[in-house]
């Protein structure tokens, strides 16, 4: 029997693992959509694959995704090299430029959700295909948008019912700030280059800041032993003022946060604001999501200068947090009416009647004829309010035998009477 590729998961209602149950996914994505639409954001869907150049320039040539060859790369029949998206921001910025959104009223706020692909080494809690909710605000370089993005992210989590949240805020400065900081890091790490992990030896010359968030225990120990100064100590006047304004706005909004100098973020396009939201109960992989500002990404993709800020929320991570906190997901509504054909001719009658009642009424049907007792058992399992029997006797009298499952009351109704019952006040 063929099976799914390791690191991928089927998402359906009865999935054994909680994070892959479809009602949980739907609860998270619908909640996020309500919050983001309420803030004036529009839904956008971009392709899951792009020209490789778009994705490489988007994530940066020194990011883990490129350095560790974590991107899925393919070539189409025309010889064009494509990649499956390892994150959604580059695609959204590409769409902003391609469709002339710069002439719209700014900022343009867009959101999406869908699958993300990373060819990571197989390990627990890491997936080759996972899912994100993504929000981007494009067109203004204003710290107010950064604070709003963080507030929206926190609102999504709180609307879902999550507690135990920790917002960690940092700054990666402007390109000029990072030049100074990277030179400081190179001088600091070069005498210890042989001890660094293979990946960090590559980063040492290209982008030494990435050593600071290395997952290697050896690298982490070297960083701790050297007592590396934080990026915040190298911020220029403009970056520091921007960071302080974001902090002030968050305080005014009543959002609890801590300034964490270690926040670097894994993609090269970030400038100034960077943040993560953590959840204490999901352990070492406690980040539910993160975001930041990326004022130069549009130019990297061949477009005009377009400032932007946004965030990504890991759906599977949020699902784990919901499970850890014991938050009950609203159940899917049970059918109001279960129509049970008692013989073969009644099968199409049941379907025709169901279609005439839908969508005003939630109706399910039994697809194979059963005895009244078996049909009643099926209706109870589905949680229906009513069961309607259709058999030879009902056909002869031109009626449906309708039984209210809670009270046990049973009566015969003509089709028009049935419509009147269910199309009037709530029949439950």
Automatic annotation (TrEMBL):
Annotated residues for binding of L-histidine: 87-89, 118, 132, 136, 265, 269-270
Swiss-Prot/TrEMBL catalytic activity: tRNA(His) + L-histidine + ATP = L-histidyl-tRNA(His) + AMP + diphosphate + H(+)
Domain Aminoacyl-transfer RNA synthetases class-II family profile positions: 28-330
CDD domains: HisRS-like_core
Annotated GO CC locations: cytoplasm
GO MF assignments: ATP binding; histidine-tRNA ligase activity
EC number: 6.1.1.21
Subcellular location: Cytoplasm
Pfam family, one: tRNA-synt_His
Keyword hit for Nucleotide-binding: yes
HAMAP family: His_tRNA_synth
Quaternary structure (record): Homodimer.
Protein name: Histidine--tRNA ligase
Organism: Meiothermus hypogaeus NBRC 106114
